[in-house]
Amino acid sequence: MERLEERARAEARERCGVPEVDAERDRRRSDLRRGWYWGSQQFAERMLKLGEAALKKARRGRIGTSGEERAHGEEAARQLVAEGLAVAGLTEDDLKRLPGSEARKVAIARRVWEETTVNLRWIADRLQMSSRINASQQIRRQREQPPALPKALQQWASQSTKDA
Predict the structure, then answer these.
(1) Closest to 41 measured CA to CA, from 63, 58, 16, 21
(2) pLDDT digit of tens for each residue in the chain (164 aa)?
(3) Is the pTM of this model over 0.70?
(4) Are 139 and 109 in contact (CB under 8 A)?
């Protein structure tokens, strides 16, 4: 039985034009049960290039990467920031003066992050929060342990335009 299976594998390889390969030396060309692909070195390189291109695309960021979608997201974010500043009683000077971890700034940043397509760099720059990393950490901390906020800001921050 084993001899018959080996013969079937050998004949199938011949019909498909796949050369006999030392499985220990080149595992990429082993049969599909043990390897990643079946093909030549050129095929491998072409697949790697395609995979790298797909990964680069995936790393570009959140949904909304076209110019039109990005502009729409920024407009929505600007509106939310303006609303949030008004509700929190903050001015542009306050944004510069207060630290990036200030609870009211973080509440605004959190709602903008959850409801728009702008990235953390945009949020950090707009709300004067030092860096995108700081903005991300502060938003995460506020999700895990919500601070005591003024009632109006707390209601605004918990609202969602998606509910409307």
Answers:
(1) 21
(2) 777 677 767 776 666 666 665 555 555 544 444 445 667 778 878 877 887 777 776 655 544 455 656 666 888 899 999 999 999 999 999 999 999 899 999 999 999 998 888 999 999 999 999 899 999 999 999 989 888 888 888 888 888 645 44
(3) no
(4) yes
Residues 95, 7: Cα–Cα separation, whole Å: 76
Mapping DSSP onto H, E and C, the string for 46-66 reads: HHHHHHHHHHHHHCCCCCCCC
97: how many CB neighbours lie within 10 A of its CB? 11
Please report which residue ranges of 30-164 form alpha helices under DSSP H: 41-58, 67-88, 92-97, 103-115, 120-126, 132-144, 151-158
Q: Among residues 150, 77, 121, which one has the least CA distance to residue 158? A: 150
Domain locations in the chain as residue ranges? 2-58, 67-158
